[in-house]
């Protein structure tokens, strides 16, 4: 018979939860939140569903211990990225120990593992003390509205974000900043170069400077487990028609940050580049603005939660590995709210790609380690 955690995972994958802030018309989190809530109620949790935006809920389930004690939170996001190019994104296919489908790795495998861990605890009589909080949050793939709302209403002494880490105990991750850069030109007929000023050509100068900065960032000594800071040009647009000098060009770029770098650092770097180009050519005109950003995150070295999570992994018979992750997670939001957090989840491949999968055995191993952590923590 199929394991109940894997059955739940298949159900979650089969529900479209594409983030509508990323893809116009995306289904959002309501359907998958309802399925998670049903499962939480079935194992005896008190469940609360709260909209953080119209039609976009968080779901929180709580298991109470027999006496007061520490609180532990398992948290994962309900939304996924889009499915363009995928043949059957919501048909969870199983092949060679892998389960394919959109969100299988990022991160419905982690959601199934944390709910499955709680089901095992419930079947064994629950936790001895304190409380275990399961949180499924909306919008992590865009602006993390769900995690921002969660920490306003819920607190815990420690937390695990069950993003896919290949069963590595992750102690931190990079941050990011989104910056928009605009270069100004002057529209004119394509046959009259003395009248026109090419905004796209001027953006080329900016791109050259950004490429140089990226090479310099990546030449720095890497942060342990995180790698180096970096940047890339994400989106660009400009021009009106073929025979007109473009009067405006807009670039949107992303800067990945490491611990010690602020959200507004990317904006300061962009403004410095624009000022330098203005000094080289007084006719150059451009501007930059910060669109959005999130801080990097790092739990303290040797933190008791890191050691407790490592011990829980070891108790399943697995080797323990600690490291950082390159991708951003809601751990930064929980950490900023005063909740020490590690990231720990199953392995797979293809997150955000057209062929995504999670390893079934890793989902079960994650579940067992989370259950062990809760038993040792909530006592």
Describe the protein's architecture and organization.
The protein is an alpha+beta fold. It folds into two domains: 4-173 and 296-377, Zn peptidases (Aminopeptidase), CATH 3.40.630; 178-294, Alpha-Beta Plaits. It has helices at residues 4-13, 30-42, 104-123, 145-153, 199-218, 265-280, 304-314, 331-336, 360-377, and strands at 46-53, 56-64, 71-77, 93-95, 98-100, 131-137, 158-161, 169-173, 175-184, 230-238, 248-257, 286-294, 297-298, 322-325, 341-343, 348-349, 357-359. A six-stranded mixed beta sheet has the order 1-2-6-3-7-15, sandwiched between helices. A hairpin with a 2-residue loop joins strand 1 and strand 2. Helix 5 crosses helix 6 (265-280). The longest helix has 20 residues, at 104-123. The mean pLDDT is 96.
């Amino acid at each position: 018979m199929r394991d109940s955690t894997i059955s739940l995972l298949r159900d979650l994958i089969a529900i479209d939860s594409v983030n509508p802030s990323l893809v116009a018309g995306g289904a959002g989190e309501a359907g998958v939140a309802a399925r998670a809530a049903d499962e939480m109620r079935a194992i005896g949790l008190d469940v609360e569903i709260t909209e953080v935006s119209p039609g976009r809920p968080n779901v929180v389930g709580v298991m109470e211990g027999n006496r007061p004690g520490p609180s532990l939170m398992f948290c994962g996001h309900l939304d996924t990225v889009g499915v363009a190019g995928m043949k059957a994104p919501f048909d969870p296919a199983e092949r060679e120990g892998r389960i394919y489908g959109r969100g299988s790795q990022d991160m419905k495998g982690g959601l199934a593992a944390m709910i499955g861990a709680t089901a095992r605890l419930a079947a064994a009589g629950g936790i001895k003390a304190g409380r275990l909080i399961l949180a499924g949050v909306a919008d992590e793939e865009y602006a993390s509205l769900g995690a921002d709302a969660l920490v306003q209403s819920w607190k815990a002494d420690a937390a695990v974000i069950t993003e896919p880490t290949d069963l590595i105990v992750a102690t931190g991750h990079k941050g990011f900043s989104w910056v928009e850069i605009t270069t100004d030109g002057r529209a004119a007929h394509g046959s009259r170069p003395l009248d026109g000023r090419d905004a796209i050509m001027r953006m080329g100068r900016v791109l050259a400077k950004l490429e140089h900065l990226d090479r310099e960032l990546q030449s720095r000594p890497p942060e342990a487990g995180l790698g180096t800071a970096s940047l890339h040009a994400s989106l660009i647009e400009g021009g009106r028609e073929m025979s007109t000098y473009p009067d405006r060009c807009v670039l949107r770029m992303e800067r990945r940050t490491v611990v010690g770098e602020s959200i507004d650092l990317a904006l300061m770097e962009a403004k410095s580049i624009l000022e330098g180009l203005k000094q080289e050519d007084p006719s150059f005109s451009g501007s930059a603005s910060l669109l959005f950003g999130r801080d990097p995150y790092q739990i303290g070295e040797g933190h008791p939660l890191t050691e407790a999570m490592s011990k829980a992994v070891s108790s399943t018979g697995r080797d323990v590995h600690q490291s950082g992750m390159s991708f951003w997670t809601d751990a930064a939001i929980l950490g900023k709210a005063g909740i020490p957090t590690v990231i720990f989840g199953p392995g797979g491949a293809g997150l955000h790609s057209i062929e995504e999968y999670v390893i079934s055995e890793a989902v079960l191993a994650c579940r067992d380690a989370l259950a062990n952590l809760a038993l040792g923590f909530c006592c």
